[in-house]
Design goal:
This protein has 497 residues and is of the alpha/beta class. The strands form 6 sheets. It has a 7-stranded mixed beta sheet, with helices on both faces. A 6-stranded mixed beta sheet has the order 9-8-7-10-11-21, sandwiched between helices. Strand 15, helix 15 and strand 16 form a beta-alpha-beta unit. Helix 7 packs parallel to helix 8. The chain starts with a helix and ends with a strand. It binds nicotinamide-adenine-dinucleotide and magnesium ion. The site of nicotinamide-adenine-dinucleotide has 27 residues, from helix 10 and helix 11.
């Protein structure tokens, strides 16, 4: 409650948002859960409860799906002129921008990330995403189809909204993940039931208020907070949902897929990663060191794209490891509301235990920490930015996604070796290459099995740039033109002449 944030000196809006239990948004109304249950959401810098939130379950999901279905069939959104639809999405971006500070504070309190980062990354990227998708509303086109024997038939395709969409999102970028999901669904004319992560429901709920203010009709976006095993599972299995979009762990992604089989709803998945970041000796070492640090430590390593396997050409291995370790030690870890904090706490106690478990497992198997290696302090969920060396390919810290500020640094001798190592993983989400030799960079880019290759940069996201995974990192692409495909069906219309 207010006590948990009173010392922080945040603006009145956020303080008053925390003063009463937050409800869920169904059919344009803010309602309690049918069971009357609520759940707490915590400030990860202190472990204190911020506020309680309505706990959605199967019955609430069912009501929300009914509302979305009715809105879809009645068509206030689907049948609205595309330019009016685009305008409403643009207004949502404007409203978000107007309330940037409030959203940054909500993200900081609920997720733990530094306020200064939420201000320049999470909120502006979400604003951009809505504006980018607003532009697509008027540009969803089909094709005219040339037949083998011209003159007998005339055929064309149209792209129609897929219908009622369930969206389940994670806690690492709570607002931005809501935007990635809602933006293309709204642009294409779909109706939505969104389930935010139980760790971080607040910014999505506040966004629900702005969705109403933007003039998006009732029932088009329904927001049901709750736990994954209950509300999330009910949404994934719901027989009247046409598509489920999920971002989170690969483990849960597989469960979503199974749940979706009941009515063969369409599925898109944005899952985990263990992304290789490759540093060649011919590059600018300072730039590579800074890039490799940012690649893993941005957002406390709680990024599906985090550059968590750092491959360094042998001749500069020690130099780069020293450089990244030095950067890791310089990172100021502290509560998100302090201007000096570069890194906040991990999102939850569960996540703290997970990450510390990986650190213990790596170190007990012989890995050595050249920076960090353990929890920081005993209040809040802080972990030291960590660099591990002396690892072997069999170690869990090398193979599995840690989702924390932990990088494994591994030397390599030549390109063919690093290609083999980079691809030797179940994931294929992102990758990085640092070199001045562009021919080498492009040749390597072609050989890495990953949805994104960053060359001499990392963690660069843009609403226009598609993002998603090869292999077990997922199905489909978010953002860019590609995202629209996941929210539309192609209809072929054929006319006998
Ligand atoms: P998770 O996959 O359990 O949760 C993500 C979302 O899925 C949440 O909204 C959750 O409520 C929901 N969910 C959970 N179980 C569900 C189910 N059976 N059916 C439907 N929805 C369900 O992730 P987590 O437990 O918070 O984190 C565990 C690990 O997942 C992390 O350590 C990290 O490795 C990974 N992760 C990846 C991403 C990503 O962006 N790819 C995001 C968060 C977590
Ligand atoms: Mg989970």
């Amino acid at each position: 409650m207010a006590t948990a944030i009173s010392s922080v000196g945040l603006e009145d809006k956020v303080t008053s948002f925390m003063k009463k239990d937050r409800k869920m948004l169904i059919n344009g109304k803010w309602v309690e859960s049918i069971s009357g249950k609520t759940f707490p959401t915590y400030n990860p810098a202190t472990g204190e409860v911020l506020v309680r939130v309505a706990e959605g379950d199967r019955e609430d999901i069912d009501l929300a799906v009914k509302a979305a279905r009715a809105a879809f069939e009645a068509g206030p959104w689907r049948k609205m002129s595309p330019s009016d639809r685009g305008k409403a999405i643009w207004r949502l971006g404007d409203l978000l921008e107007k309330n940037l500070e409030e959203f940054a504070e909500l993200e900081m309190l609920d997720n733990g990330k530094p306020l200064k980062i939420a201000r320049v990354a999470d909120v502006p990227l979400a604003v951009d995403l809505f504006r980018y998708m607003a532009g697509w509303a008027t540009k969803i086109e089909g094709n005219t189809i040339p037949f083998a024997k011209p003159g007998k038939y005339f055929a064309y395709t149209v792209r129609e909204p897929i219908g009622v969409v369930g969206q389940v999102i994670p806690w690492n970028f709570p607002l931005l993940m809501a935007a990635w999901k809602l933006g293309p669904a709204l642009a294409t004319g779909c109706c939505v039931v969104l389930k935010p992560a139980e760790q971080t429901p607040l910014s999505a709920l506040r966004l629900g208020e702005l969705i109403q203010e933007a003039g998006i009709p009732d029932g088009v976006v329904n927001i049901v907070p709750g736990y994954g095993e209950t509300a999330g599972a009910a949404l994934a299995a719901h027989p009247d949902v046409d598509k489920i979009a999920f971002t989170g762990s690969t483990e849960v992604g597989k469960m979503i897929l199974q749940a979706a089989a009941g009515n063969l709803k369409k599925v898109s998945l944005e899952l985990g990663g263990k992304s290789p970041n490759v540093v060649f000796a011919d590059g600018d070492i300072d730039q590579s060191v800074a890039g490799a640090s940012m690649a893993i430590f941005f957002n406390h390593g709680q990024c599906c794209a985090a550059g968590s396997r750092l491959y360094v050409e042998k001749s500069i291995f020690d130099k780069v490891v020293d450089g990244v370790s030095e950067q890791a030690k310089k990172i100021k870890v502290g509560p998100g509301w302090e201007q000096s904090s570069d890194m906040g706490p991990l999102v939850s106690e569960e996540q703290l235990k997970r990450v510390c478990g990986y650190l213990e497992s790596g170190i007990s198997e012989g890995a050595k920490a050249t920076a960090g290696g353990q929890r920081k302090g005993d209040k809040g969920y802080f972990v030291e930015p960590t660099v591990l060396v002396n690892t072997t390919e069999k170690m869990k810290v090398v193979k599995e996604e840690i989702f924390g500020p932990v990088v494994v640094a591994i030397p390599f001798s030549d390109t063919s070796e690093v290609v083999q190592k980079a691809n030797d993983n179940i994931y294929g989400l992102a990758s990085g290459i640092w070199t001045k030799d562009l021919s080498k960079a492009h040749k390597l880019a072609a050989q890495i099995r990953a949805g994104t290759v960053w060359i001499n940069c990392y963690n660069v996201f843009d609403a226009a740039l598609p993002f998603g995974g090869y292999k077990q990192s997922g199905w489909g692409r978010e953002m860019g033109h590609d995202a629209l495909e996941m929210y539309t069906e192609t209809k072929a219309v054929c006319v006998g002449l």
